[in-house]
Amino acid sequence: MTQPIEVILMRELAGHLATPIFVVDSQGDLLFYNEPAEELLGSRFDETGMMPFAQWATVFTPTNGRGTPLPPDDLPLAIAVQQHRPAQGHFWIRGLDGERRKLTVTAIPLQGQWGEHLGAAAIFWEEP
């Protein structure tokens, strides 16, 4: 599957940063997450690989502080990819290693040079 150059460059940038980053295509399907994200998500990208939106939006079991599951479309990355606007949020996930973590996520839509919608990227970190 061929990706637009901007998405390839975003993936390349993410691969060189110490900040956890998650990149999805214009349909919301996971394309890549970097090594710092692997620790928080509980699995290496090489092991999970690309995932459709419906899978990654639920496999990490995102919940609010009371443990109530969050609808996939309410996640910041889903908002960025579906509504083409930045979004931020705090929620809990259960990593693929079984560990529960509180994350803060900032997601931005990715737009090409001529205005085409390419997907979105999320930068996230674990809250103490």
Explained architecture:
This protein is an alpha+beta fold. It has a single domain (about 5-125), classed as 2-Layer Sandwich (Beta-Lactamase). Helix content is about 30%, strand content about 30%. It has helices at about 5-15, 35-40, 45-50, 55-60, 75-85, and strands at about 20-25, 30-35, 85-95, 100-110, 115-125. Strands 2-1-5-4-3 form a five-stranded antiparallel beta sheet, with helices on both faces. Strand 3 (about 85-95) and strand 4 (about 100-110) form a beta hairpin. The chain is globular and about 45 Å long. The mean pLDDT is about 95.
Short description:
This protein has helices at residues 5-15, 35-41, 45-48, 53-59, 76-83, and strands spanning 21-25, 30-33, 87-94, 100-111, 117-126. By secondary structure, the protein is of the alpha+beta class. The protein has a five-stranded antiparallel β-sheet with strand order 2-1-5-4-3, sandwiched between helices.
